[in-house]
Amino acid sequence: MPSSPVARAALHYPFASKPESGQLLEVAQGLHWLRMPLPFSLNHINLWLLDEEEGFTLVDTGLADDRSIDIWQELFESALAGKALNRMLVTHMHPDHLGLAGWLHERSGAPLYITRTEYLSCRSLLQYSHEQAPEDAIGFYRAAGFDEQQLSYYRSQFGGFGRMMRGVPHSFERLQDGDLISIGSRDWRVIIGQGHSPEHACLFCETENIFISGDQLLPTISSNVSVWPSEPNGDPLDLWLQSCHRLANLLDEETLVLPSHGKPFTGAPTRLHQLIDEHEADLTALQAFCDQPKRAVDCFEVLFRAPINRHNLIMATGESLAHLKCLEKRNLIKRQRDASGVDWYQTLA
User: Fold this and answer.
1) What order do you get walking across the sheet with 186-193 strand by strand?
2) How confident is the model at residue 130 (pLDDT cuts 50, 70, 90)?
3) Residue 77: CB partners within 8 Å, gap ≥ 6?
4) CATH of 5-268, one of 1.10.443.10, 2.120.10.30, 1.10.630.10, 3.60.15.10
5) How far is CA 134 from CA 128, 140, 214, 329, in A?
6) pTM for this structure?
7) At 265, phi and psi to the nearest 5?
8) What is the DSSP code (8-state) at residue 349?
9) What is the pLDDT of residues 22-53, one digit of tens each?
């Protein structure tokens, strides 16, 4: 979900330029920004390399596609020649962050550090790679208002998670909230966020006021917060808002935020309150929109400025449901399922 121009203007971007794809840019002593391409409308991901006495630690890995692997091969033969990859810290299990963990582990032996829920969630999704969409999932999207053509498209895309991964290591080192990890000359505290993914790990160097935010805090877009078929009655938006409030109390306006998408910035509390306010405004607008019964797919016009097509339909539906479920949990709307298995949401009188 894009942010408004006013929201973007409130932040400060300390680096005038960004690295070219596959190039390293030092943002603090021994801390390097690596920008990798993505074949989506969101066309890049930022990875972070932290120097150690022998080798380096990598935060996030990039997507498992041939272009990303070629870039890593070139880096290991040039800028990273002679440097060992000591470990991989992965913020969460989405393929642009975890996709090459298996390949990098096979190449280097570097262990994977990740939260338990993210690791197990990834393992669960990988099991679906060669299966057909289960009837529970079909029923979930039928309830959201999908027609038969949209359901057919969902079936064709099911299991796509595995196509963006090159496996994952068969063991991991568990990250937990509050853990302190020493990397080179810095200590990094693990800060857990929720909503975008189940147990998203951020890293905070308190002594230098640097925050590696993953997708938990981005400068110009709001990360997707969705309800999925695996937890059809979850309330991830409430978890997301709680996490935003927690981070707003932890970080200050001078914190250097290193996000997974967009440019490094300062102004974290301002940005977090913008995100909170935007979602609360969407909830208020959606509650008013549901004065007459609405399906999840009817709510796109309230929540999104961009047109919704087959390529962004699944994520838009998940985010619409996240807002509807949040309102339902707040006892502001009610849900009723009709004889066709479609859910209708309406504001409570």
Assistant:
1) 180-183, 186-193, 200-205, 210-214, 256-259
2) confident
3) none
4) 3.60.15.10
5) 10, 10, 31, 27
6) 0.95
7) -150, 165
8) -
9) 999 999 999 999 999 999 989 999 999 999 98
